[in-house]
Every structure is written in C-alpha cells, then in structure tokens.
Design goal:
The protein is an alpha+beta fold. Helices cover about 15% and strands about 35% of the residues. It is built from five helices and 22 strands.
C-alpha cells in the first residue's frame, strides 16, 4: 500500500497518556493483573512498559476529582494493546477470566483477533493479535476489515500452563481508536496533515488510517454522534497519544503542513503538540518518547524516554 504522503515504514503509535481517578486501583489492574512493568513515577503519574523495554507504553495520571467520561462525547474509544502471538493473547485472556474481569466483546476482524474490556475507570481497551499480512482480507483492492464472532473456545485452547510472569516481550500499542465529531475532518487531519493513508472507509460510521501498509494505526468513528463535543477536562480518558515518525524530514513535513493549514502548533525538541479537529491531543515525535504536560520541572527526557514539560485518545 503506497502512502499518499511519504511516511517511514516503521511509523507507529508510541505512548498513550490516560487520566484515571485512583492510581492504586489502576496499578492493581495494569501492573498486577495485566502484567505491565512500572518503569517510573513523576508526581501523580506512573509510567508502564512491556517487559524487556524501558520505553513506556502507558502513562497513568491520577486526578482524584475525575469523573466518568460523559456519553456522546469525543475522545478515547479504546487503546489497542497488541500481543506478539495468538498463544500470548490466549494466556492473557485466560488470566483475566480466572480473575473474573468483565469483558465487553470478542471479535474476529479478519486482520486480527480481539478482546474488548474496560479498565477500572471505564477506559476502553482492546487486546489483540494480528494475523499474518498474507491472510488479511481484501475487497476491490482495498483492505476489508470485518467484525465477526470470535471463537473464544478455540482461542483458549492455545493457552499454555506455564506460570504467569507478565506480558510477553514485544507487547506494544498497535493502534488507538477515537471518537470524533466528523469523519471528513478527521481524514483531513490524520491523512492530509499527518500523512497516514486511508486504509478503509466503508466500515459503517468509521474510518481507519495507517502507515507502512498496516491495517490501522488510528481508527476514528462517529458512534458518539456527529458533531459530538469534547469531554470536560476533569473526565477520565485520553490526555494525549504519540505518533512516532522516526525520520526528521517526514516529521518536518508534518510541521509544515500543520502550519500551512493554520493549525495551532506547539513545538519542543523532536516533538509537535497538535490537536485533531475533535480536540484529541496528538504528539508527533521523532523518537519513542512522550511529554508529560503540566507535570512541572521544565522539559527533560528521562531514562524512560518520556519527558516532562510545563507547556500546555477495531
């Protein structure tokens, strides 16, 4: 699949920053149950990574007065955590079942097999594994993701009996899926400004974008309603996510297009702070790093690959 605007093949989703109400409760889920590793703390924020990596995948910031995200608003639909193999997905699935964690759905998307569940604050999560690319369904020269029932019993037969030791090495954030107010506006931003290719536009009420021929790095939908407003700042949910564009020329091209389009662009070393038309905050970075905005102390990159700054979601 050829990019309309050139992006590096290894463009990917980096860290995702979530606002939560109770840090202890969230760590009991993400760290102790699901198996992320804690790699740093800064104020009310904890950084979590997959085993074998110091690059955080999740930043969890506690806000004690946070309230649930109102329905019919834009923002996070789900963060999609990608497991390396089907067996890895099965083992995580079995662990969550054994601890009686609630699920919201199970789907076979043709390109992937996926489990859907809420975190303790109701933030949407997808746990999934990709099928090999040669097995992905196509229709009329276009990717054709579907939503079919997942054979959960067959998946669970893949689970092995080794002791649980956390998430496997190679776990990452495969994509992020967002509620937006308008799909055409979302396309103008994610494709026209950021340069991601449209990979599917015939999925009801949704549009998907990716680099490097992937099925999607960013999903957008209008299932919260056309023209939906952003959630209030005190709501739990997405604070920002990072799109890693590991090539300076491509990163600079995004900067130029954003400025030319009259968007509000804030900039730090190797990072652009943008918002999509629905108010979802995006950090476009050259390296796997993330900026924790409003955490104080000036801008500095820590060992974890995150930074902190006063400037300032199938």
């Amino acid at each position: 699949m050829r990019e309309r605007i050139g992006l590096p093949e290894n463009t990917h989703i980096g860290g995702v920053h979530l606002q939560i109400r109770d840090l202890g409760r969230s760590l009991a889920f993400y760290r102790d149950l699901l198996g992320f590793q804690e790699v740093g703390r800064e104020g009310a924020t904890v950084l979590l990574s997959a085993p074998g990596s110091r690059s955080p995948l999740l930043a969890l910031t506690e806000r004690r007065d946070a309230r649930p995200k109102p329905p019919r608003t834009t923002g996070l639909y789900h963060v999609a955590i990608r497991l390396p193999t089907r067996r890895d997905l099965a083992r995580v699935f079995r662990r969550l079942l054994e601890h009686e964690w609630p699920f919201q759905g199970f789907s076979d998307h043709g390109v992937s097999e996926a489990l859907y569940l809420p975190d303790p604050d109701g933030n949407g999560l997808e746990l999934y594994r990709d099928r090999p690319r040669e097995q992905w369904p196509w229709r009329g020269g276009r990717l054709a993701m579907v939503t079919a029932p997942l054979d959960v019993e067959d998946l669970l037969r893949e689970a092995t009996s080794e002791p649980w030791e956390g998430l496997p090495v190679g776990t990452d954030i495969g994509h992020i899926h967002l509620h937006v107010a308008d799909l055409d506006e979302a396309e103008a931003f994610y494709s026209g400004i950021l340069g991601l290719a449209v990979t599917q536009r015939d999925y009801p009420g949704a549009r998907f974008f990716a680099a490097g021929g992937y099925h999607h790095h960013v999903g957008t939908n209008i299932w919260a309603g056309r023209g939906a407003p952003p959630p209030p700042p005190e709501a739990v949910g997405l604070r920002a996510f990072a799109l890693v564009v590991p090539e300076e020329a491509a990163w600079a091209g995004i900067r130029e297009r954003a400025i030319a389009a009259g968007l509000s662009v804030r900039e730090g070393p190797g990072v652009l702070f943008l918002q999509d038309p629905s108010g979802n905050a995006v950090q476009v970075t050259i390296e796997d790093r993330f900026v924790l905005e409003g955490s104080g102390g000036g801008e500095r990159a820590g060992r974890s690959g995150f930074a902190s700054s006063r400037s300032g979601g199938p």
